[in-house]
Structures
1.
Amino acid sequence: MMHADTPKTRDFAALESLEGALDWWREAGVDADFADEASGWLAEPESENAVAAPPPPPPQKIERKTALQRALAQPEIPATRIDPATLPDSLEKFREWWMSDPSLAEGALDRRVPPRGVAGAKLMLLVSQPFDDDAEGVLTGGAGKFVNSMLKAMGIAEHEAYYASALPAPMAMPDWAQLTASGRGDVVRHHIALAAPQRVVLFGRAQLALFGMTPEQAREPLSIECDGNPVALLAAPDLRNLARSAARRETFWNRWLDWTR
């Protein structure tokens, strides 16, 4: 006679079936549980007081220097002292030397600006340094238009003037005392002697240091020795200051009239 299974009998049967399935998996070499979702097996267990890692620092901003900052970072003193005895003995050779000799200044040669004009000019216009837009020669950029208008009022044609600068290339902040100590004053005097102008107008009184003078001495017309020859010189404000100030232009014009009368 068959007896129906009781609930207890069914529980034991299910348990035996489960144990048999587990034995089968063990014999197959599977002794771990697997899931579809990945877990960090090698991660250290997190403690209750764990501190969160700080966020990564923001990317550094690259600072790009301006042209002025780059110029200030470059050395502004000529590499060596210039020996007056080694200066060229003709105006043509001097111009070649001006554009190529490394003793004049450090830096790229393509930044140098040549003087222009002929020897024996009625007037030499001497600026402290070329302007940034003087591509073809001293005062060939925007400032040249202002100067040419001034020359026209003076009754001097453009070809009757000689255009020169005390420095061969633009310099951010010239130290005229150091430049004088390096022999730059001798170079400018020699340049004037070779060009042999009748008069010199110097724009930018700070460069008077090259001749051993101070801006206070510029109130009256001056005479400077250039290789043993006296040359009449009139010191004027920088061209930028003249262009922006009507009062300075009037003062300069009256001094010019008194000087040439």
2.
Amino acid sequence: MKTTFIRNHQYNYVKKQADFVLKTLRTVADRRVLETVRADAEMKVTGAFASLSTEQEQLLRPISTLETAEEFQEYMKNLEPHLEPFPPITLKQIQKLFPKNKKMKLPDLQAIDFRYVTYLAWVDISTNKLFIVYPHEGEFIGVEGRIVPTHKKGYCLFCNRQQELAFLTVKTRPEVAAADNYASVGQYVCIDNRGCNQSITDISALEKFVLSVRK
């Protein structure tokens, strides 16, 4: 049985580096530049993990030796069995994260390939709310907020790619406030959370946001 050690955002990061190396191979003739780009990609890919076994390093390092598009495709395909999926979650667990939303729309968990999920998210169109579930230190954090489409492109807080955005507003209780006093935190995020999950390469902004608004 193959060990899983690559999280979705790390897989996306490796793919980003692989795409850059392939693009360089197609557009740059100077071998010194190519070798520098190759070595840099290998260093970045292995450096994206806190720790790696010898076997895991051997799986990642070939990024610096690939030549053709087919080889890059095969390289990424060989990583897929080692993807660490989003932790198992049930609809009942999700409902417990949002106890005040008895009639909220729930996601179709059967239709989701959890290997490619960093954060679980879905929109309830009837209430214009975005729901986010994020795993952190062995537990799930639920975040809900109201979204307003901007009908224009910009950079998403979570994946940092230029895409059509929505403005997400989340109510949060200040640390020092009256019991009924709430503040709002707003950020621009992707309308398409599936595409966001396929593009996110760094979880720091996402995690900082989720932890800052958790109830």
3.
Amino acid sequence: MIKILELFGGIGAPRKALINLGVDHKSIDYVEWNAKAVRTYNAMFDNRYKPESVVCYNLQPDILVHGSPCQDFSIAGKQYGGNMEDGTRSSLLFETIKIIESLGVLKPKVVIWENVKNALSKKMVSAFNHYLSDMEALGYTNSYQVLDACDFGIPQAREGIFTVSLLGDKIFDFNRLRKSPMRQISDFLELEVDEKYIIKQPSMIRRLPDQPTLEGTFGGRMLEEVREYVNTITTKQMRCPNSGVIKVDNQRWRYLTER
């Protein structure tokens, strides 16, 4: 049985992946500060966790998975940076280093870190390189690659950097990943949705794909129509840009639902 520790655990995607793959495992603990994500996790896995910070956390897993906050790396944010001295949300990445150090000889065999592709940009890469160096100093061998959800059957154009660090000299081979054809978004969309998902805000209606192009307003940016796939899914759809909008009929458009 594989024991995993879920830091910055969100809704539990890594654990769900192990379930889908039929891998015998045990989640020895889950840490997430966002109350809504914790409620979702508890609903999915019948747990009773409460919001909690990763700071000063201590446990002993085989696999440590951490998708630390991306806001200050993301090109959509203000790009404050992620080095420890930056003191940003993205700098919480280095709390994981402290946790691994505290485990001593009981360090996890595998550490997986996922974040936005912009962590590799010229402005942000110093924090990423710092993380790689710290992991090497702890005895890990790192490998990383930018992966796109579309290459794994999911109709979402979402690229992220995945870093796999193995304790010792072995190197994780990304070429062994099994890719699959992208399913169409139509396989997932609900045909009938609650009225609350219908776009009614004037500021959003003006940006619908069937409206005249805006001039000088928010850079003239328009919403994109969902066809074969969606853009990166975020928690807030009531903004431009978002994941895309769906045409209900000639008069109405809607947002994505949580489901």
